[in-house]
Design brief:
Layout: H1 2-6, H2 11-14, H3 16-20
Length: 21
């Protein structure tokens, strides 16, 4: 889940907000 926080890989698909991070 750390990848989602950093916005690396597929986080943009699940969380567009984190995609900017």
């Amino acid at each position: 889940m750390e990848g989602k926080v950093k916005g690396v890989g597929s986080p943009g698909k699940e969380n567009p907000i984190f995609s900017h991070l």
